[in-house]
Amino acid sequence: MEHAQRTDRAYLVGGGIGSLAAAAFLIRDAGFPAGNITILEELPLTGGSLDGGGGPERGYVTRGGRMLEEEAYTCLWDLLESVPTLTDRTVSVRQEILDFNRRWPTHAQARLIDADHTIVDASRLGFDQRDRIELARLLALPESAIGARRIDEFFSEHFFATNFWAMWRTTFAFQNWHSAIELKRYFLRFLQEFPRIHTLAGVRRTRFNQYDSIVRPLQAWLGEQGVRIEHGVRVVDADFTHDEYGRRCERLRLLREGVPDTIEPRRTDLVFLTLGSMTADAGYGGDDTVPELIRDKRDGGWELWETISRKAPDFGRPGVFNGNIGEAKWESFTLTMRSPALLKRIEEYTGNAPGTGALMTFKDSNWLLSVVVPHQPHFDGQPDGVFTLWGYSLFTDTVGDYVPKRMAEATGREILDELLGHLGFDDIADEVRATTTVTTVMMPYITSQFLRRSAHDRPEVVPVGSTNFAFLGQFVEIPEDVVFTVEYSVRGAMHAVYGLLGVDRPIPSVYHALGDPKVAFHALETAFTGVCPG
Fold first, then answer.
1. Residues 6+ apart with CB under 8 A from 145
2. How far apart are CA 400 and CA 367, in angstroms?
3. pTM of the model
C-alpha cells in the first residue's frame, strides 16, 4: 500500500455507479484516505443511469428496469457486502437483497402473451435443428472471427420467430442488428438462464428501485467515510503528458456552475474518467405530451470522451456508439396509479403477486411491448394507495395495434391505451385511465453499448503506460464480460483501482456456466430439447 500512502488525491469524473464503486474500492481495498477523494458530477444527483425519482402527484419514473443475477454479478455482490443499508447499519445491502428475494422470489407465470390475450407456454423455446446449429456455431467462433457483424447475419428467420428469442431479446434488450459478439458474450455469461428463461427465476431484485436501494446507501456510506461529491461540475476535457515514467493526466478542464476552471492533478494523484452515457439526452413526456428524441447531444454526456479520443489512438472511438441513434434508442414508461385495479387484475390474470413476476412481453405487438409489476412500494416513501408499473418497447417506429401511431409519437395516455388493449381489460379501462399518471422517457443511446464494434473501439480500463488515470463506465473493454449491466461498471471500477494501485486482492472471476458441468449440462440439454424443465 506504499503507493496509496504517497498518493495525495483522487478525482473521479462522473457520479454514476462506476465512480461510486471506484471510490468504495479506493477506501476499502487500497487504504486510500476518503477525505482525499472527490467525485465531480454535473447533475444534482449521483447514480447516473441507476435512477428513480418523482412523486405520487406528478408521477414516479425510472428510465430502466434492472434485473440482477445471482451467479454472474460477483463484483457487485462483493461491493454491496461492505455497504450498510440506510435503515439498519448492521445489515449490508447485499444481505437485504438476499432476504428480500427469499421472501419474494421471481417465478413468472406469464412471460409471453399473444395477440389473443392468451398466456403462451413459454417453456417451449421453439428451436429447430437449424437454430441449434446456428447457436452452436456462434458460441464456437472466436470474437476475432465474428468481428463487427450483426446478430441477424448468424441466424435464420425461424430463430427470430421462436419463443426463446422473444424472451431473450426483451430480457436483455437486444435488437437483431446489434453486435453478434455481445450476444455471444451474453449467451456464455447467462447460459445458466436457458432452463429458466421462461420464468426468470434467476433474477434478483432490490427492495426498492436501484437508486433507493443501491445508490443512496452507497453514497451515504461514502459520505460517512469523508468522500466529497461536487455537483454542478462538468468536465469537458483532459490533458495528458508522456514522459520517462509513462503517461499521466496532468489537467482536467471543466465548467463549475458554468464558469471555466481547471484541476491540475499532481504526479501521484489519481484520475478516473467515466466515458459516455447510455442515458445521455433522455427526453421526458407525460400524459398529454410526447418525449423528444434529442439528437444534438445537449447534456454533454459524450463530450469528454469525444474530446480526449482525438488525443490518443487507444482512447477508443465514441462515434461507433453514439453515431447511430436509430439503432440504439428505445422508450420506457412508468405508470403511477392511485387505484389498485390494474395490479389486482394483472395478479388474477398471471397468478403472480407484485414483485414475483417478471417481464410480461406481448410477443405479437407491433411495438414489442413489455411490462413488469414490481413489489410495492417501489419507491422509498411511496404512500399507501399508490402503485407503480414499468414498461418499455423495443420498436418505437412502428404503428401500434390499438393506437394508430408510432410509439415515438404517442402521448402517455395513448401508451396506456395500447397496454390496456393488449391486456384486454376493457371492464376496468376507464377506472385505470382516470387514476393513472404516465411518465415516458425516450433514450437515444440506451443500447449504444450493443452496437457493432471492432476490437479497439473501446479503450482498456487502464491504458498501456498509464501511471495515474483509468477509464470507467459501460464503454471500456473488459474481456468476456457483458455491457448493459451494473456488474460491468462495478467490475471496471475494481480493475481501475486495483490496476493503478497494485492492490493485492483477487478480482472475482467472470462467471461462465460452462465452467460448472452440472449447470452447463442442464443449459445445453434445454437448448437441445427446446423445452425448459419443470
1. none
2. 6
3. 0.97
* Cα within 13 Å of Cα(284), Cβ side: 12
Q: How far is CA 201 from CA 69, 92, 244, in A?
A: 10, 23, 54
Contact 490, 464 (CB under 8 A): no
Cell numbers for 492: 471496471
The C-alpha cell 488515470 sits at: 469
**Residue 292 corresponds to which amino acid?**
E
What span, in angstroms and rounded, lies between the C-alpha atoms of 220 and 416?
37
Helix H, strand E, coil C: the string for 335-359 is EEECCCHHHHHHHHHHCCCCCCCCC
pLDDT at site 7: 58
What is the rounded distance in angstroms from the CA atom of residue 84 to the CA atom of residue 91?
6
294 SS3 class: coil
Nearest one of 311, 306, 232, 249 to 275, comparing CA atoms: 306
For the chain, give the number of residues.
534
Instruction: Give residue-wise pLDDT tens across range 390-430.
Output: 999 999 999 999 999 999 999 999 999 999 999 999 999 99
> What digits encode the pLDDT tens for the residues 277-313?
999 999 999 999 999 999 999 999 999 999 999 999 9
CA–CA dist 81, 24 (Å, integer) = 12
Whole-number Å distance between alpha carbons of 446 and 443: 5
* CA-based nearest residue to 436, from 501, 341, 344: 341
Measured CA to CA, the distance from residue 98 to residue 293 in angstroms comes to: 38
- Integer Cα distance of 449 and 6 in angstroms: 37
Q: Grid coordinates representing 8?
A: 495525495
| Continuous segment of H or E residues that includes residue 470 | strand 469-472
- Give the H/E segment covering residue 401: none
Sheet strand arrangement including 246-256:
233-243, 246-256, 259-263
Rounded to an integer, what distance in angstroms lies between the CA atom of residue 292 and that of residue 410? 11
Q: For residue 455, what is its C-alpha cell?
A: 476490437
CB atoms within 10 A of CB 425: 19
The mean predicted confidence, pLDDT, of the chain is: 96
d(CA 468, CA 412): 47
Are 407 and 417 spatial neighbours (Cβ–Cβ below 8 Å)? no
